Amino acid sequence: xxxQVYRLLAVxxxxxxxxxxxxxxxxxxxTVDVATSGRTALxxxxxxxxxxxxxxxxxxxxxxxEVTQRIRADESLPAYxxx
Length: 83
What we know:
Helix content is about 40%, strand content about 15%. It contains 3 helices and 3 strands; from the N terminus they run βαβαβα. Helix 1 (about 15-25) links the parallel strand 1 and strand 2 (about 30-35). Helix 2 packs parallel to helix 3 (about 65-75).
């Protein structure tokens, strides 16, 4: 039985969506950090890469696709699998 706690980053421009995701995922035992913009998400990923990123496509400052491109272009970040 594994006792590893997975760290997730949820990114969405709508704070209510983040609140709901965080509440549900933390109840399941995950550690959840949140970001309301692509720029904030990138800063958090660089500071402490999470195990999983839940990324909204439509956000105010940059789209989820742009965030994904920047993550892929930064060789100092882990090689995440994108779906």
